[in-house]
Amino acid sequence: MNLLHIENLSIDLKTHSGPLSIIDRLSLRMSDNEILGIVGESGSGKSMLAMAIMGLLSSKMEMKADYFSLDGQDLMKMVPADRQAYISSKASIIFQDPKSSLNPCFTIATQLNETLSAHGLHARSARKQRSMELLDAVGINQTKKVLNLYPHQLSGGMNQRVAIAIALACKPRLLIADEPTTSLDVTIQAQILDLIVNLNKTENVGVVLITHDFALLSENTDKIGVFYSGHMMEHAATKNILTNPLHPYTRSLLNSVPQLGKRHTRGSRLFALKGQIPTIDKPPVGCRLGPRCPSAEKQCVKPPRLISIPNHGKVRCHFAKQENERKETESNVETRSTRKQTILGADS
Q1: What distance in Å separates the CA atoms of residue 123 and residue 108, rounded to the nearest whole number?
Q2: What is the structure's pLDDT at 45?
Q3: Quick one: how far is CA 97 from the chain centroid?
Q4: Regions in the chain scoring below 70 on pLDDT
Q5: Element (H, E) at 9
Q6: Do the beta carbons of residue 46 and residue 57 sit within 8 Å?
């Protein structure tokens, strides 16, 4: 069963001059226990997707979808109050800055107690015991001492662990991590990511990991969804994305990642896609990437559909099938050449 299943999700910002599209016809499926990475430039709609899943969109946003299910229940068929109650029992979110999600005026114990009470645990002794268990689960020592501290008395990494503990209080089926390590130093980043991956394995929690860092996703995800200007451009297994990217935008992102062992001449720069991501009030005609795409052709003035590519995933590009066939042909030629060299070598 799909833990998360979305078909043709659209989110519009309501303005005096009419609706502006934030996310347009997004579709994805996520299996139980999967770690799904969402990657893209700032402003591409990654965090807006997280807010939609959590039911946290503002009143200025209008959401529509053909189908939107979480753990088997169609959210679109629920009245708002029932939908929010259901989501809060099934999903939790971790934000990139723990200072914005923790209240500086209350102790860690008070903030954990509030969450636990909201999910039906009212006995004081039971809440204290559960709070200590949650802090221990996220790798915090001296749990009794930490419970009595305020957020400003803890490091950024410790505060992020507390935020994760609060997110786990409702025993969620889905955990959304919205750039959870951006404000942390490199060493703490690795610890937090290890913690999230371990929760996926030990606590049976599906994870949506949102970031702009492809390198981070390469080692920690099962699948990757590539976002650009409110569109899902490519959605496939992580291995397929890394070894056989079919969308020009995916290839551009991968080319911009520094590669260990690759030598660069003095003064050379990493690849960067020309131009800027379009604003929501002036989207380009046809393919959203068209004005910046190094492979754009006349056909790109027509909006491409998100199509399925056999043995790969889904891609929103007019030329995805041709690109895949070209790569398969090159791979077959290389395989035959290698086989021929092996046979010749054996004969000699």
Answers
A1: 17
A2: 92
A3: 16
A4: 259-268, 333-348
A5: strand 2-13
A6: no
Distance separating alpha carbons of residues 38 and 32, to the nearest angstrom: 17
Q: What is the pLDDT of residue 265?
A: 57
Q: Partners of 11 in the beta sheet?
A: 23, 63
Alpha-carbon distance of 128 to 34, in angstroms, equals 31
Q: How far apart are CA 35 and CA 345, in angstroms?
A: 44
Residue 131: CB atoms within 10 Å: 25
Q: Which residues is 174 bridged to in the sheet? A: 91, 206
Contact 200, 35 (CB under 8 A): yes
Q: Is residue 72 classed as helix, strand or coil in its secondary structure?
A: coil
User: Nearest-CA neighbor of 285 among 274, 272, 299?
Assistant: 299
Residue identified by tokens 């109050």 is 81
Closest CA to 4 of 90, 89, 80: 90
Residues constituting the chain: 348
- Alpha carbon distance 133, 154 (integer Å): 19
Q: Give the H or E element holding residue 178.
A: strand 174-178
CA–CA gap between residue 305 and residue 300 (Å, rounded) = 11
Is 205:174 a contact under the CB 8 Å cutoff?
yes
Contact 303, 230 (CB under 8 A): no
Retrieve residue 27's tokens.
């579709």
Q: What is the pLDDT of residue 261?
A: 56
pLDDT at 121: 86
Instruction: Tell me which long-range contacts 131-140 makes (C-beta under 8 A, separation of at least 24).
Output: 131/165, 134/165, 134/166, 134/168, 134/169, 135/108, 135/161, 135/162, 135/165, 137/165, 137/168, 137/199, 137/203, 138/162, 138/164, 138/165, 138/168, 138/195, 139/191, 139/195, 140/165
Q: Helices in the chain by DSSP H: which ranges?
A: 46-54, 80-90, 98-101, 108-118, 124-137, 143-147, 156-167, 186-202, 214-218, 238-243, 248-255, 320-347
Q: Are 55 and 93 in contact (CB under 8 A)?
A: no
Give the pLDDT confidence score for residue 246 in this predicted structure: 96
Domain annotation for the chain: domains and CATH numbers: 2-221 (3.40.50.300)
